[in-house]
Every structure is written in structure tokens, then in C-alpha cells.
Amino acid sequence: MITLYDLAFDKDLRPSPYCWRAKLALKHKGLSWRDEPCGFGEKQKVAFAQSQTYPVVHDGTKVVKDSWAIAQHLDAAYPDKPLIPDRSYAQFVNGWADTAINPAIFPLVVADLVERVRPVDRAYIVESRGKRLGTTDFAGFQAKAREKGVAALRAALEPARRVLKDQPFLSGQAPAYPDYILFGTFLWPRTLSKLELLEKDDVVHGWRERMLDLFDGFARGAPAA
Amino acid sequence: MITLYDLAFDKDLRPSPYCWRAKLALKHKGLSWRDEPCGFGEKQKVAFAQSQTYPVVHDGTKVVKDSWAIAQHLDAAYPDKPLIPDRSYAQFVNGWADTAINPAIFPLVVADLVERVRPVDRAYIVESRGKRLGTTDFAGFQAKAREKGVAALRAALEPARRVLKDQPFLSGQAPAYPDYILFGTFLWPRTLSKLELLEKDDVVHGWRERMLDLFDGFARGAPAA
Question: What secondary structure letter does DSSP report for B220?
Fold first, then answer.
């Protein structure tokens, strides 16, 4: 029996890109899980894992925090359908998404994010994200960021675009963990905002559509803003 | 018999990161080649290849332009010691180096670059690079770029850093094409400039030292500024 502790916003929105990596990894393995939605203020739920963040996976007697560790755990415990056929590639894409793509998206959706947390988490988010940005005028910050930030994000996606010009998935003919990493990153703004980040004729757009179709439209059917 | 057409600067400096990819790929395969140094103004030398750029490889009856095509040609023609064990990974790193790293380095060394071309190529470079930058005050532009640009480059290297924290090479226990791509990128400023881009305790620095040691110090021994 697997339990997944998944960050939850208001109206049961589930935006966390790191939790999406874990959910998509579980789906890739054909595993089902008990869903445990957790707000920012419910970190006592994952205290048993010595974690301050989501996702956490509780799999039998194994407790695993951090999406990268979860992916490795799943490949070790369920060797069928490898998630990470090439560890170097997966780790490179993981670092790239975390440091080049997620930070490029955050300013573009920060006001939408603040607006959609659970009411009980609002004060915490306003303070922590306000400190990070140096302002609590999230709407103004977001509008300004979008002026150049959408184009900058599209440019930053160029490494993925180069690969996707030649093949349907980042991992080749079928998706694997590098695809789930970047797709999880896109599910974050998709869950929070109506902002369209990609142009329709971008091969990254076509790839994202294929990813939305996976597992009987698992991600496409998730609640979104 | 293989001939490599390699971009040459004054005093036989060979800075081109794309030509380095080809030279390192040839070394990886244990192949030797006839060296054909070419200035910016000598593109007639590669007209037979319908190329406007270096490197070009002439291998028996095969003519191959573009570093990525050269790497693929070498793996097809000399299957021993694969250069590209994972095409997706190599293509991703190729796109990343070309669009996120090379453009971050260019402003940091542009004055050094202009200063070190062959005298006969000076006017062409001043005009083409001046147009790209919107100024011909290369020294002023470079000094200004270095104020924040060195730190920005170090941050942009984070995906490589994450991988190199866990293993000696981007490709695992031994180098392959992803390593040669990024190493070629570092050989470009190394050949042109005394600017140190990396901190000594950075794992990327340690990796670069290992790359400089490869093939009996092949790259370490190349002429540099």
C-alpha cells in the first residue's frame, strides 16, 4: 500500500511540480496509491518522514521524501518499466528544470498562486513569497514579469525543443522520467493560471499535448484554474 | 585519411567551441587527422562542403559539416567506443550549451576575442560582432558584462554541477559526447582570455581539470592566451 502526501491548494487544486513528478512516476509504474492532500500548514502530516516539503511517499515500510529519491526508490522497488534508463540524463534535466525553468515560471504565476492557496494558508504564503520577491503587490509583480518573462521562458526551453524536433518525447519514442520532470513543471502553471506559456506551433506544445493524453488523460483531467 | 578544417586565430590559437567538439570526438575514437587551419576570411576552403562555418570533416569520400553531424558520422563510421550512447541526452546538452552557456560566455570574452583574430580578419570581426552587440567598444562592453555575467554563468552551469556532484563525468564513469560539448565550450574562453570562469572548489572546475588531462593532456597543451 502506497500513500502519497501531495500539496493541496483551495478547491483541491494540486499544483506542486515536485508532487506531479511523483504522481507521474507512480502512473508510469502502473501503481495506485492512497492520496493524502496536505496544505502548507499541515506539515505535521509528514513529520514522520522528517520532511518539511511535499511529496512524501510511504510505501510499505519505506518512507521516501524528495521527488528525485522517490523516482529512484520506485525504480529499485519496481524494476519493470524503468523510469530512469539513463541516470545522467535524468539528473541533468532535473537540475535544469529546477534551476532554469521553474524560476522562470514562478514570477509569471505568483499572483495566481497566492490567490489560490487554501484560505488558512494565505497569511503564510503572502509572507514567504512576499519576502522572496521583495513586495506583496503580487498582481503588479506578475503583470510586469509577464512583459518579457514569457518570451524568456520560451527561449529557455530551447534544449527541450531541439530534442523534441527529432523525437516525440524527451526520452525517445516513449516517455520516461525526463519527460515527467518537465511536464510536472508545466502542470504547475496549468493548475494555477489561465496564462498560456507556449505557442501552438511550438514542438514543446505538441509534446505537452501528448503528455496530457497519457494514462487515459490523467493530468488533463486534474482540476485547474 | 581525415582532414579537419579548424577555425584559426592569430598565433595559431584555435578557440572555436564547435571545432573543439569535433577534435575531442576524433580523439575519443582514437583517430588522427590532417589539420587544416582556416581564418574567418578563408571560407573558400570549405566551399566544397557547402559550408559557411567550421568545423568541416573530410573523411575518405564523406564530407560532413556541423559538429553534431560530425559526431553522428563518427559513431556510424567507427562504432567502437560510442561517442553518443544516449542520443536524447547528447542532443539536450548540445542545445543547452549552444543556447544557455555559449551566449553567457560570449560577452565575457568578446574584447579578448576581437583582439586575437588574425590581423587580416580584424575588420570583419569588428563589424560582425559590433553589429551583434550594438557597439564596437568591446573593452567597455566586456568589462561591464563581467560585473554580473561571471556569477550568472556559474548559476547557469547548475544542471552540470548537479550531475558532477554524483559522478566524475557528465556521461558517468567515463567521458562521452556530452562532456566534449561542455568542455569545448570552456576551451573557447580558455584559448582567448585569462579570465577564470570557475571557482576552485566548484565540482565543475574539478571536472574541467579531468577533461584537460584526457588524451595525454591534448587540450591542456593547446596554445592559449
Answer: T
- Which helix (H) or strand (E) segment holds residue A140: the answer is helix A138-156
Q: How far apart are CA B204 and CA B40, in angstroms?
A: 31
Alpha carbons A127 and A139: distance in angstroms, whole number: 15
| Digit-coded pLDDT (tens) for B104-119 | 999 999 999 999 999 9
Q: Do B100 and A100 touch (CB under 8 A)?
A: yes
Residue A100 DSSP code: I
Average pLDDT score over residue span A156-172: 98
- In angstroms, the CA B54 to CA B115 distance is 20
Query: What one-character-per-residue DSSP string does A30-67 give?
Result: T---EEEEE-TT-GGGGGGGT-SSS-EEEETTEEEESH
Q: Which of A84, A87, A88, A162 to mutate to test the interface with B (most CBs of B within 10 A)?
A: A88
Tell me which DSSP letter residue A134 carries. T
Cβ pair B167, B173 in contact under 8 A = yes
Reported ipTM: the value is 0.96
**Distance in angstroms (rounded) separating the CA atoms of residues A119 and B12:** 67
Listed residue (A153, A165, A225, A184) closest to A70, CA to CA: A184
Tell me if residue B61 falls in helix, strand or coil. coil
**Residues B6, B55 contacting (CB under 8 angstroms):** yes
Q: Chain A closest CA to B163's CA: distance in Å?
A: 6
CA atoms within 13 A on the CB side of B32: 1
**d(CA A57, nearest CA chain B) in Å:** 23
What does pTM read for this prediction?
A: 0.96
Neighbours of B172 (CB within 10 A): 18
B121, B39 contact by CB (below 8 A): yes
CB contacts, 8 Å: A95 with chain B: 158-163
Neighbour tally for A52: CB within 10 Å: 9
Query: What angle (nearest 5°) sits at the alpha carbon of residue B40, between those of residues B110 and B76?
Result: 100
Question: Which grid cell sits at B99?
Answer: 543556447
- The CA angle B41-B46-B52, to the nearest 5 degrees, is 65
Q: CA of A214: how far to CAs of A72, A183, A211, B85, in Å?
A: 21, 11, 5, 27
Exposed, middle or buried, A145 (CB in 10 Å: 0-12/13-18/19+)?
Answer: buried
| Cα B63 to chain centroid, rounded | 20
